[in-house]
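Saturday, quiet lab. Running sequence design on the structure tokens for the scaffold JK sent over.
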């Protein structure tokens, strides 16, 4: 069982930056691939970024490529999402998720554990 707790959301102006953190419980964090997803009001949850077990592979949605960076610190059981050059369309609740075993980075249905989410609001 893994519990995930996100933090770092908030209100920021367009062009600004935020760093989201997701802390995982348990001693097997390094065996989980991690992903960030987001859901805006009235829209479906969408993939943002994902990172493999030992951070050797990262994946990004086209909409955030070049602006967002996912990273992880297995010693701290934490995955990060650095978000730069934020746009109003980035406004959403951001969720981190974890999966062990077979991994499909962009498929939310393949993740085993989810956090409660953190709100990111970008004003224009």
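Result came back. Writing it out in full:
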């Amino acid at each position: 069982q893994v519990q995930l707790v996100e933090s770092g959301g908030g209100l920021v102006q367009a062009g600004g930056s935020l760093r989201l953190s997701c802390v995982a419980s348990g001693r097997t964090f390094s065996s989980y691939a991690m992903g960030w997803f987001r859901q805006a009001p009235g829209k479906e949850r969408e993939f943002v970024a994902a990172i493999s077990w030992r951070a050797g592979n990262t994946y990004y949605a086209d909409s955030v490529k070049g602006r967002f960076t996912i990273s992880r610190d297995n010693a701290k059981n934490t995955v990060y999402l650095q978000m730069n050059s934020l746009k109003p369309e980035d406004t959403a609740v951001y969720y981190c998720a974890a999966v062990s075993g077979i991994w499909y980075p962009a498929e939310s249905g393949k993740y085993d554990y989810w956090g409660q989410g953190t709100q990111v609001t970008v004003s224009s």
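Notes for JK: The mean pLDDT is 95. The first strand starts at residue 4 and ends at 7. Ask whether to fix the surface positions before the next round.
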